[in-house]
């Protein structure tokens, strides 16, 4: 089935990209410290992913001027979000927040194990209830799929790779007189790798982000049973006003520099999986 193929494809790409980032880190640390530096570099990347604090959820919410939506204000949306979370295997009841931005957008946070889904005023006004449910399911899918942890690991690999590359270039600069005198020989390939390593890992991080977006689309469609609603939501967001173009550069820039895949490709993949899905989740979306 198309759905099974997409699951395997997304998983394979995620594994390959993380392995590729780890490989670049290993090569960079080998150039700087030799074979003995590889385990320390990998351990440093894992430690960075686990120990370096991310932005607290409260700070992110304050930065976006987001505030909780009372249950009485949108009871159907609250109930639908809780039902989607239960279907996704998320045991904590998600918190739903609203921010006044006109740009249609949504994002998810993990606040000490409690999912927080933030929707903008523009998103709430632009989408129909089924489309809004699909977007909420997409954000919950990021949490259920462990994407926050995966991207933190990728960030740790990127940070340590950048550190190794900086140290390597600094050592080259310190030894430049010896290199010019011919007393020390440095392979050109090693120099080029040190220069290119941070950029290579950065491109792989962006590719990983796009892959996790495909996976979240797939899981959202499985949660709601309605891939067409998510496809309509994506197309509606694609038709946002021109004044929002700067906000949406992550979707519209060159392919290699996007954090999100092209909308047309996302819609095509959703269309592929429309037939084998189970019946839609019965969620009351009207008053």
Polypeptide structure, described:
- A hairpin with a 2-residue loop joins strand 3 (about 105-110) and strand 4.
- The chain has helices at about 1-35, 35-50, 55-65, 75-85, 120-125, 130-145, 145-175, 175-180, 190-225, 225-240, 250, 265-270; strands at about 65-70, 95-100, 105-110, 115-120.
- The protein is an alpha+beta fold and about 290 residues long.
- The chain has a four-stranded mixed beta sheet with strand order 1-2-4-3, sandwiched between helices.
- The chain has one domain (about 1-270).
- The two termini are about 35 Å apart.
- The model is unreliable at about 240-250 (pLDDT under 50).
- It contains twelve helices and four strands.
- Its cofactor is Zn(2+).
Number of domains: 1
Order of helices and strands: HHHEHEEEHHHHHHHH
Shape: elongated
Task: State the total count of DSSP E strands.
Answer: 4
What structural category do the secondary elements indicate? alpha+beta
**Cα-based radius of gyration, to the nearest Å:** 22 Å
Largest sheet: 4 strands, mixed
Regions with pLDDT < 50 over 5+ consecutive residues?
Answer: 242-251
- Helix content estimate: 55-70%
* Percent of residues in β-strands: 5-15%
Q: Mean of the pLDDT scores?
A: 86
List the helices and strands and how they pair.
Blueprint: H1 2-33, H2 37-51, H3 57-63, E1 67-68, H4 75-87, E2 95-99, E3 106-111, E4 114-120, H5 121-126, H6 129-144, H7 147-174, H8 176-181, H9 188-224, H10 227-238, H11 249-252, H12 263-272
Parallel strand pairs: 2-4
Antiparallel strand pairs: 1-2, 3-4
Helix pairs in contact: 1-2, 1-7, 1-9, 2-7, 4-6, 6-9, 6-10, 7-9, 9-10, 10-12
